[in-house]
Write a structure and sequence with these properties.
Elements (H helix, E strand, L loop, with lengths): L54 E5 L3 H14 L3 E5 L4 H12 L1 H20 L1 H10 L11 E5 L5 H10 L3 E5 L6 H4 L6 E5 L7 E2 L2 H7 L7 E6 L9 E6 L11 H21 L14 E2 L4 H11 L3
Parallel strand pairs: 1-2, 1-4, 2-3, 4-5, 6-9
Antiparallel strand pairs: 5-7, 7-8
Helix pairs in contact: 1-8, 2-3
Length: 304
Amino acid sequence: MVGTGQVQLPMSPKIREAEFMSLDIETPQGAPLPANPTAPAANPEPHQRADADRIAVLSGGGPLPWIMINALIERYGPVHVIEENKEPTSTLIKRRMKLVGPLSTIGQVAFGIVLKLLHKRSADRKQEIIANAALEPSASDNCRLTHVESVNSKPCRAALRAASPDVVLVVGTRMIRKATLKSVAAPFINYHAGINPKYRGMNGGYWALATGDVDNAGVAIHLVDEGVDTGGIISMTKFEAGPNDNFVTYPVLQAAVGKPLVVDAIEDALRGNLKTMEVDLPSEQWFHPTIWRYVWCGLTKGVW
C-alpha cells in the first residue's frame, strides 16, 4: 500500500526501461549511506562549497526532467546539469527487438502514433496540472548546462569529475554504465515514475492503473545501480488520476507528487542523512504497451 499525497511510504520490513552504480556497500537498513568507496576521493571540504556546487544532474532532456531540475534551482541555485542527446530511433528499435521480440516491437512502434494524438488531445489537461502544481517544465538559463552525446561517454564522465558533486540526480536518461557510476564519489539518485520494485522500467504509473493496482500507482526515488531500477529505495508516494487523465498526463501528475521527494532526497544526501527503506513487493520490469494491449486496457479497464 502506498501513502497518499507527498508522504513517504511506510513499508513492512522484508526484503527502464527506466534503465539505470552499484555502491557495493553493506549498509544496515535505515543507516546513513556512505559515499561510493570504489570511486575517486570526494572533495575534501564540501562544507566550504555552496550547495548548488555540490549537485549535478544527469538529464535526458525534455519537460519532465526540467521540472525536477528547476525545483533544485529554486532551492539551491544554479546546479550543474549534464544533458545527453536522445538515442536514435533505430537504436531504440533494435534494443526493443532484443528485449521483447519483433511482434511486440511492431506493436510498440504503432502505439507511438497513438501517443502523438494523445499529446495533442491532452495539451490543456497537462497545462492544468502544471499550473495547479506550480511546475516549471521549461529549460532554465540559471544553471551550468553541458551537452553530451551520452551519459556513458567520456565527455560526460569528464564533466562529472570537473563538477566533483556530492550527489548526482538522474532524470530520464538511458541506462547508466559502471564507468560513469564510478567516475565520482557521490550517490546517484534516480527519479522513477513507478513504484519499485513492482513497476520497474517504463510507464510504471500507467501499468499500475491498467492492471487495477491503484494502491501502487506512484513514484519512487532510489539509488542507481547497474540494474533496471533495482537500487535501494529512498522514498515513494502515490498519485491519483481523474477521468480526464490518460497515458500522457499520468507522468505530469507523477512529477507533481515526486518533485518534493526529489528535493528531500538531495537535501538528505547533502547533509549525510540519506537512508533507504525495505519494500515487500514482487519485482517486475515493464515496457511500452503495444497498440493492441493499450486499446484492450482502455476498453476493458477504462485506462487510456
